[in-house]
Structures are given as C-alpha cells and as structure tokens.
Amino acid sequence: MKKRKTFISFILAFALCFGLTGCGMAQELANSYNTKELSDEEVVLAFMEAYQQGDYEALKPYISEDNPLHLFFGGMDEAVGGEMAASYKAMHEKLKDKVTFTAKAVEGEEAWGTVNMTISMPDYSKALYDAMVDALTDQVENGTTAFHHMPGWIASGIEGESETYEETFELHVGNRDGNNVMDTNTNREFFAMLCGGLKPYLDASITTCTFPGEEGSWDILSQGDEIVAMINTESISAEEYSQEEQEAIVQTYEESMSTMDGIIASATIQDGSITATMGVDMATASSYALSNMGLISDRITAGSNGWLSLDSTINGFTQEGGECVTYNFKNAE
Questions:
Q1: Other CB atoms closer than 10 Å to residue 239's CB: what's the count?
Q2: Average pLDDT over residues 16-30
Q3: pLDDT tens figures, 242-263
Q4: What phi and psi values does residue 90 have, to the nearest 5 degrees?
Q5: DSSP H helices in 143-202
Q6: For the chain, what percent of residues have pLDDT higher than 90?
Q7: Do the beta carbons of residue 224 and residue 203 sit within 8 Å?
Q8: I need a labelling partner for 278 at 20 to 30 A (CA). Which of 94, 167, 298, 311 fits?
C-alpha cells in the first residue's frame, strides 16, 4: 500500500520552499505526504502513539468520521463535552499508561491491509454499570437526583475498579481519498476496547418526561435510541384511606416489587398522598414481567430495531400530552 512520490509532488515542495512561503510550509506538505506513505503496520503504530499521547489532531487522519473516538477525544474539550469532558479526560488518563500492545503486518495479506495486534488494557464496563445501578437505587430509595445526573455516576464509575482484558485483533487499514484509514465497522471491537468501557455512554442521554396536571415523571437512560434504565414516579391521592391502610398499601407495593429482578421500588406517604417510585434496570429485568405490568407497550414502547426505543416512547408520551426534555450534558451535539 506504499505509494511512490511523483515528480510533480517533488517540484511542488521545491516551489513552496524557495518560491512561495518558505521551507516551513514545504516541510508541512512533506510531512503530510509522508503520513500517506506509511506502511499498514506503521499506520497502526502511529495511531496508537497518538492515542496514548491524547493527541486528537494526530489521531484524526487514521479514523473515519463515524468512529467513536471522535466523541471520546473531541468530548475532552469542555467547549464540546460540557459536563462530560472531565470524565472523558479522566478515563483517558486511566487508560493511556496501562495500554500494552504489539502490531505486526500479516505477510501475504498486504492487499487487504491486515495487521495483527495483541492489546492489553483496563476496562471499566462493570464499574460504570455498577455506578449506574447505585445511582438508580439512590434516586429511588432516597429521592435524590443521582440517576438523572449522568456525569456524576459516570465519574464515580471511572474511579471504580477496572478489569484487564487482552485481545488479539486482525486490524484492516484501507485507502480512502488517498489516505490510510482504519475503517470503523471492520475494526469496531478494537475501537470499542480503546474506550475502556465508556463507548456505550458516549452517545448516552437522560430524558425526563412529565405530564402537565399530573404528579409524576419519568427519567429514562438511553444509549443512542435504546432504553437501558428508567425511573417512574407517580403520586395518587390516599385521603380516603386510613393511616393504617395507607401504610399497608405502601408495604404491599414495596414487597411485591422486591421479588422482581431488575426492579427497585419505594413508596412514601405525605399529606394524604402516596408517592410510588420504581426504577428499572433493563439488563436484568424481565421484559415479560414488565409487559404484564403494562409498563412496556402502554407507555414504554419498542422500535423497529427490537429494543425499547427512546424515540418511539417520546412520540407516545407527546401524543398523550406529555412533555419530554433530553439531556446529554454536553455543550455541542
């Protein structure tokens, strides 16, 4: 995949150096051209060096526009990442010095740009998931906003314990518009690994839905369009019941919910009303049980991709008169 410098490129560099704007610009041109002439193995090594140094500009030429590393590295800039920027920076700090790897071009597969890479690095997937569940539990049981404030529990997850994984990948370097680029889809598992467990949260959001005139709300955590966790709070009048009956209702509600996997529930009595709060972790909750409860399809709905869809759910809520606001805690989309 190496390319020979043409006579014209040499003349252009010469002209820039001695006839136009000076040797500095000529050197920049030469450096740019040399970047394109790297072997496939050198492309992977140069990419990894930029990754470890946190040099987003040096990393960009080797990845296509749909790569998750654009969200990861671009989001480290507070002007873009907003409240998430500190977490992105903290994650990279945790990863960069603990990444070890070897890369070797596969002999005989030069036409496919194949490079074998063995890489070992930390992964915070479990710590991030546990932090989310802890925040969900805290908001349900204590009435905080811990789950809604995604930057807070993501930061906690990054401070948690990591697991170390080692993987071997067949990476593929392709040519796009004269540049050596590592295709996102072909190498997607490799790029996901470089995010250290953060990839599902790079496009995550919290959507809050309320219904004017009703006491209650929904906080919905989605990764892209897929709903992965949510909290529903509703209040009902209980003035017609005695204090003893109200307490029995609360106890029955909490006990019945406590037997269901992936569901955390709490209820309180105040000023003649019962406020019930239910948190759902879709990773462990039973879709069948949620459907029987009327939670799925009645209000939380599936999309065409087979998962519970944020877009479909928002559309359903707004058709019922609900108002929904989505937060990704960034300053730019």
A1: 8
A2: 37
A3: 899 989 999 998 998 888 999 9
A4: -60, -40
A5: 150-158, 188-193, 199-202
A6: 64
A7: yes
A8: 311
Angle 297-300-305 from CA coordinates, rounded to 5°: 85
In this structure, the strands spanning 114-123 and 163-176 are: antiparallel
Per-residue pLDDT at 8:
31
Q: Which value, in Å, is the radius of gyration of the alpha carbons in the chain?
A: 26
Shortest CA distance to 327 belongs to which of 199, 150, 196?
150
Sign, CA dihedral 236-241-242-246, equals: negative
| Separation between Cα atoms, residue 150 and residue 221, nearest integer Å | 9
Indicate whether this model's pTM tops 0.90: no
Please check whether residue 235 is in contact with residue 273, taking contact to mean a CB–CB distance below 8 angstroms.
yes
CA–CA gap between residue 302 and residue 210 (Å, rounded): 20
Cα dihedral across residues 241, 244, 247, 253: positive or negative: negative
Tokens of 305: 């991709």
Q: Specify the residue for token string 């001695």.
A: 18
Residues 255-313: tens digit of each pLDDT: 988 889 999 999 999 888 999 999 999 999 988 888 887 777 666 766 656 678 999 99
What backbone torsions phi and psi does residue 269 show, to the nearest 5 degrees? Answer: -115, 130
Amino acid 59 reads: L
User: What whole-number distance in Å separates Cα of residue 120 and Cα of residue 10?
Assistant: 41
Could you give the CA distance from residue 223 to residue 128 in angstroms, rounded to a whole number?
13
